[in-house]
Amino acid sequence: MAGVDRLDDPDALAPEALLANAVMGGGLPAAAQAHLFEAGLSYHLDAVAEGHLRQAEAIAPGHAAVLIGLYRFYFYKGRLRECLEVARACLAKAQRETNLPADWRDVRQEDAEFARYDRLMPRFFMFTLKGYAYLHMRLGNLEEGREAAMKLLELDPTDKIGARLLIEVLERAERDDE
User: Would you say 156 and 164 are in contact if contact means Cβ atoms under 8 Å apart?
Assistant: First the structure.
């Protein structure tokens, strides 16, 4: 029964269902959810919004919804170093939950189905690694950013994630500097 196999593999569920469940708050305690909501309402008040995000993190440490909230807050506030720390936590979560090597450099294409959009945690890993690459580039760590973008292309040669664009921007910037 193919349907039963899909039910036994939560990573194979429809992306919409997985995102609604895991990322949008499935398993998230109501108190943490309330803090995320309040953080959104108080976004214009940095200290208040960040306080709510940190309260959500204290209640539900490592939950994807909390991590994504922190990432987005720091990213859109231009606090890229803090955003990078959250990206590292997201990478570690994706690596643990997908049984990938602890160092993203050691991840191989055969470790997971990276090219499939219906595989949530490999997809989460790929999007997080792309963010990690971008953040390193923005912070001036160009080689680390390039290495992460090249890893994305190695894991998904069809480049569904758009890593090639990061590499092209980096190459263009290097040509302009010459």
Answer: no
Instruction: Report the number of secondary-structure helices (H) and strands (E) in the chain.
Output: 9, 0
Query: C-alpha dihedral over 127, 129, 135, 140, to 10 degrees?
Result: -150
How far is 49 from 166, CA to CA, in rounded Å? 30
CB 56 within 8 A of CB 36: yes
Token digits of residue 159: 């480049």
- Tens-digit pLDDT profile for residues 137-153: 999 999 999 999 999 99
Distance (Å, whole) CA 24 – CA 86: 17
Question: Do 53 and 73 touch, CB atoms closer than 8 A?
Answer: yes
Tell me the three state secondary structure of residue 50. helix
Q: And the tokens for 110?
A: 């055969």
Rounded to whole angstroms, the Cα distance separating 54 from 60 reads 10
Tokens representing 75 are: 């990213």
Looking at the predicted structure, is the pLDDT value of residue 20 above 70?
no
Q: In the prediction, which pLDDT does 4 show?
A: 38
